[in-house]
């Protein structure tokens, strides 16, 4: 078993109350590496020096491991694995910089990047440099989802026909939910997507615009459909996720009641998920967040050890990003978008910039 020197880029200020303006995912990653006996956190970099200093104190990093610029950190600390937890619009320069500097593995936060072009370039650059690239979709390791996948693989609902999602939003949480839909369908790419959205009240998360309501449908190459209805339309789906098969259904909830239920032959039974839900570490509900984070980091290390591709890989992540950017492109084009996606930008951002969408600015509470 190898030992790995770990560095974090983008520590965050570790807020007491994580929000879409700052979650300090760098802390969440580091907490998971600290739990892993093959990992040693040796360095951190943040453009805000006091963030890096506070982080170093928390995780026992020596003074010489504290940096402002990530390039200097890569040269000085020569880490084996780098976690990237900076805002999405700068994922590309940081990840590409790490790949070119010869880092062996990069574990980056979702979403992959702020545009489709940037997402593809970033994944391709890592592939060319032989770098193991993963994106942190830690909910893949939450028991309600892993158990649902196990039931699917065991044929408990026959052949999967569609995955419907009534939870969250399309872009920010969608980087998890649409990704999970892909996981349920063995990580196939989609072949088309059609969507409509409503964006009347400004909502910016982690630096990116986020619609208020979305209705999207997409089809995978094997004929399975994905459907997502969020915001005012979320009640349409009856659950956070509903997986419909030829012989039954699996229902996954996020708040109340049984987290996972199996429906077949006219009856419904709860499935044991050891009390796990799917919330994020650091939030009030997030009792299990750190557990999922630990499993995510464990998957990164396991891939390094075995050479096997993780479900968190950049290649698989592009399947999700293509549906998200493709969904926004469908809104812009007013029609179905056949994939592969042939635009470069984030169509939602472009529609806001051009005035085609003009959400009402939200008053600052301070
Ligand atoms: N996986 C999840 O469930 C989840 C949850 C929340 C946020 N996120 C993602 O995590 C990422 C980070 O979001 P956050 O809210 O944790 O950010 P944050 O604002 O809390 O922290 C980002 C840090 O990056 C630093 N930074 C900015 N530019 C830098 C650079 N060039 N070099 C070094 N440091 C730099 C900032 O100073 C800040 O300290 C985003 O991609 C976000 O979407 C993922």
From TrEMBL:
Keywords, in A-Z order: Oxidoreductase
GO molecular function: oxidoreductase activity
Domain Gfo/Idh/MocA-like oxidoreductase N-terminal, first and last residues per copy: 24-135
Record-given protein name: Gfo/Idh/MocA family protein
Gene3D superfamilies: Dihydrodipicolinate Reductase, domain 2, NAD(P)-binding Rossmann-like Domain
Domain GFO/IDH/MocA-like oxidoreductase: 166-250
UniProt-listed InterPro entries: Gfo/Idh/MocA-like_OxRdtase_N, Gfo/Idh/MocA_oxidrdct_glycsds, GFO_IDH_MocA-like_dom, NAD(P)-bd_dom_sf
């Amino acid at each position: 078993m190898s030992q790995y020197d770990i560095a974090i880029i983008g520590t965050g200020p570790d807020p007491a109350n994580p929000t879409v303006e700052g979650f300090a995912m760098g802390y969440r990653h580091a907490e998971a590496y600290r739990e892993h006996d093959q990992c040693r956190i040796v360095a951190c970099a943040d453009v805000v020096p006091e963030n890096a200093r506070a982080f170093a104190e928390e995780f026992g990093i020596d003074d010489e491991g504290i940096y402002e610029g990530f390039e200097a950190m890569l040269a000085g600390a020569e880490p084996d694995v780098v976690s990237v937890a900076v805002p999405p619009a700068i994922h590309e320069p940081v990840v590409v910089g790490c790949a070119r500097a010869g880092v062996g593995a990069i574990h980056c936060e979702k979403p992959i990047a702020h545009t489709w072009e940037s997402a593809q370039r970033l994944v391709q650059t890592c592939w060319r440099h032989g770098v193991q690239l993963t994106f942190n979709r830690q909910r893949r390791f939450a028991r309600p989802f892993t158990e649902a996948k196990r039931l699917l693989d065991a044929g408990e609902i026959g052949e999967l026909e569609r995955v419907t999602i009534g939870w969250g939003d399309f872009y920010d949480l969608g980087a998890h939910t649409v990704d999970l839909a892909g996981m349920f369908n063995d990580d196939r790419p989609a072949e088309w997507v059609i969507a409509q959205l409503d964006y009347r009240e400004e909502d910016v998360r982690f630096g990116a615009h986020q619609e208020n309501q979305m209705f999207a449908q997409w089809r995978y190459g094997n004929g399975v459909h994905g459907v997502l209805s969020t915001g005012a339309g979320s009640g349409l789906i009856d659950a956070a996720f509903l997986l419909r098969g030829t012989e039954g259904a699996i229902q996954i909830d996020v708040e109340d009641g049984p987290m996972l239920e199996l429906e077949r032959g006219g009856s419904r039974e709860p499935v044991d998920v050891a009390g796990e839900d799917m919330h994020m570490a650091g939030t009030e509900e997030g009792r299990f967040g750190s557990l999922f984070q630990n499993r995510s980091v464990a998957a990164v290390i396991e891939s390094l050890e075995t050479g096997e591709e993780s479900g968190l890989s950049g290649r698989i992540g592009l399947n999700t990003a293509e549906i998200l950017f493709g969904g926004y492109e469908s809104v812009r084009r007013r029609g179905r978008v056949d994939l592969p996606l042939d635009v470069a930008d984030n169509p939602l951002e472009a529609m806001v910039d051009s005035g085609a969408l003009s959400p009402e600015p939200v008053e600052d509470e301070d």
